[in-house]
Amino acid sequence: MRISNTLTQATCLLLSLGLTTEARSVSPVAKGYSRSEKCKPHAPFRPLPPSQARTKTCHVATYGDGRDDSKHILSAIEKCNNGGKVVFDADKFYTIGTALDLTFLKHVDLDIQGYVQFTNDTDYWQANAFKQVYQNATTFFELGGEDVNVYGGGTLDGNGQVWYDLYAEDALILRPVLVGVIGLNGGTIGPLNLRYSPQWYHFVANSTDIVFDGIDISGYSKDSVTAKNTDGWDVYRSSNIVIQNSVINNGDDCVSFKPNTTDIIVQNLHCNGSHGISVGSLGQYEGEVDIVENVLVYNISMFNASDGARIKVWPGVSSELSTDLQGGGGSGIVKNITYDTMYIDNVDYAIEVTQCYGQSNLTLCNEYPSSLTISDVYFNNIHGTTSGKYDPDVGTIVCSSPSVCSNIHATNIDVTNPDGLYADEFVCTNVNTTLLDVNCISS
Ligand SMILES: *[C@@H]1O[C@H](CO)[C@@H](O)[C@H](O)[C@H]1NC(C)=O
Ligand SMILES: *[C@@H]1O[C@H](CO)[C@@H](O)[C@H](O)[C@H]1NC(C)=O
Ligand SMILES: *[C@@H]1O[C@H](CO)[C@@H](O)[C@H](O)[C@H]1NC(C)=O
Ligand SMILES: *[C@@H]1O[C@H](CO)[C@@H](O)[C@H](O)[C@H]1NC(C)=O
Ligand SMILES: *[C@@H]1O[C@H](CO)[C@@H](O)[C@H](O)[C@H]1NC(C)=O
Ligand SMILES: *[C@@H]1O[C@H](CO)[C@@H](O)[C@H](O)[C@H]1NC(C)=O
Ligand SMILES: *[C@@H]1O[C@H](CO)[C@@H](O)[C@H](O)[C@H]1NC(C)=O
Ligand SMILES: *[C@@H]1O[C@H](CO)[C@@H](O)[C@H](O)[C@H]1NC(C)=O
Ligand SMILES: *[C@@H]1O[C@H](CO)[C@@H](O)[C@H](O)[C@H]1NC(C)=O
Ligand SMILES: *[C@@H]1O[C@H](CO)[C@@H](O)[C@H](O)[C@H]1NC(C)=O
User: Fold this and answer.
1) Is 275 a catalytic residue?
2) What is the pairing mode between strands 425-429 and 393-398?
3) What is the distance in A from the centroid of ligand 5 to the CA of 298?
4) Of these four, 44, 204, 362, 398, which has the most CB atoms within 10 Å of its CB?
5) The CATH number, out of the four listed (2.60.40.420, 3.40.50.1100, 2.160.20.10, 1.10.10.10), of the domain defined by the range 2-441
6) Nearest C-alpha to atom 13 of ligand 5 is from which residue?
C-alpha cells in the first residue's frame, strides 16, 4: 500500500524525516524524531514529546485467509514493545476478530503497510467491543500508553457494510469506532488509509500530545442504506492534539470537539460530504460541565457538506435528535475558538452557531435557553459558495440568550449563493452584530 497522491505534503515531511516506506525497508530501525517539527504551519499549543529511537523489529505473522490474526498481533507487540517496531507487511492481509486491549504500549511503532480488516461478526463485536460510555460509543480496540507511532500507509478496514445495513433495521445497535485512541500520551498517527468504519473513524479520549498526519478516510455504503455517523475524529477529554494534512470523505462531522477538548490545532484538511468542523455537540448530559477551549482550525477545504464552521449546543430542555441520540440541559464553556481560512463549495451553511441542537420546536427551545457560554470566537477568511439549501441565508449565528454569547467575530467572510439571485444573508440572534462583518437580517 502506498499513501495517496493527495497527501504529498505529508509525504514531504516524512521524506525529510527518512520515514517513507522505502526508507524503512532499507533501515529496520526508525530513528527518534521531533513530533513538534511535523506540525506546520501552526505549531501545537505545547511542544510534543519527541519519539525515541526504536532498536528492534518484529513482523506480524498472518493466516491471510480471514482467520483471526489477533494472537499474532499481540505476540509481535509483546516482543517489540518498549523500544521496537511492529511491521504489518506490505501486500499481506490481516484479520482482527478479537477486541484488542493495546493500552499497555510504550515506545513502540506499529508500521502498518498491509491491509488489516475487522471481522463482520456483529454479535461478537456488540458484546466485546470496548464500551466508552460517552454517547454509547464502542471501539474495536483501545490504543493507549506512551510514545506510540502508527504509520506505514497501509489500510484499516472496518467492514462497515454489514453495520450500515444492521443500523438501518435497528438504530440502537452498538457500532464500533474503527480507531480507538484511549489514554495515549505522546503519539504520531499516519500516514494510514481508513475505510468503511461502522461509525466514527476515530475516538480520541483521555489522551494528550498526539499528531494525526496524513490520514485518508473513505467508505460509502454500497447499497441503498446510508453509512451514518461516520465522523472523521471525535476528540473527548483530551488536550494538545494536532490533526493535519488529511483527506476525509465521510457523512458526518469531519472533525468534532466533544466535551473537555482543549488546545487543539486542525490544519490543511480536505473534507467532502461531511457536517463540517464542529464544536460539539455540547450540553448533552444534564448536570455535566463541558469545556472546549483553545481551538485553531486553519486552512480547510469543505465540499458537499451541511456546514463549514459549526458550534452545536443542546438546549436547556431534553430533546431528541434521533432514536439513538437525545440530550439537553448540560452546561459548560466554549472559549477561544478560531476558524481561519476555509474554502467552501456546495455547503448548506458556511457558519452555523446553534444552541437548539436536537430540538425542532423553537418555541420550546427558547423557553429553556442553554446556560452554556460561548465567547471569544473568531470566524476569519471564509470564502466560497453555499449549496443554496437555505437561500437567501448562507449562515446562522443564533444564541439562546444575549447573556450566554460574547465576543463572537466574523471577519472577511465572502460567501455567496450559487445562483446569485439573492443577497447573501446571515441570521444573527442574541449576538453583538457590530462584531459580525456579514449581512445580518435579524438580531
Ligand atoms: C462475513 O464474512 C465472512 C467471511 O469473510 C463471509 O463469508 C460472510 O459472507 C460475511 N457475512 C456478511 C453478512 O457479509
Ligand atoms: C477516561 O478517564 C476517566 C477517569 O479516569 C474514566 O472514568 C473514563 O472511563 C476514561 N475513558 C473515557 C472514554 O472517558
Ligand atoms: C445510550 O443509548 C440509549 C438509547 O438511545 C440512551 O437512552 C442513553 O442516553 C445513551 N447513553 C448515553 C451515555 O448517551
Ligand atoms: C469536564 O471538565 C469539567 C471541569 O473540570 C468537569 O467538571 C467535568 O466533569 C468534565 N467532564 C468530563 C466528561 O470529563
Ligand atoms: C492548505 O491545505 C492544502 C491541503 O488540503 C494544502 O495543499 C495547501 O498547501 C495548504 N495551504 C497552506 C497555506 O498551508
Ligand atoms: C464527495 O461526497 C459525495 C457525497 O456528498 C460523493 O458522492 C463523492 O463521491 C465524494 N467524492 C469523493 C472523491 O469521494
Ligand atoms: C487562543 O487560541 C490561540 C490560537 O488560535 C492561541 O494562540 C492563544 O494562546 C489562545 N489564548 C489563550 C488565552 O490560551
Ligand atoms: C461533491 O459532490 C459531487 C457530486 O455529489 C461530486 O461530483 C464532487 O466530486 C464532490 N466534490 C469533491 C471534492 O469530492
Ligand atoms: C412547541 O412548544 C410549545 C411550548 O412548550 C408548545 O406549546 C407547542 O405545542 C409545541 N409545538 C409542537 C408542534 O409540539
Ligand atoms: C458590541 O461590540 C462593540 C464593538 O466592540 C462594542 O462597542 C459594544 O459595546 C458591544 N455591544 C454590546 C451590547 O456588548
Assistant:
1) yes
2) parallel
3) 9
4) 204
5) 2.160.20.10
6) 299
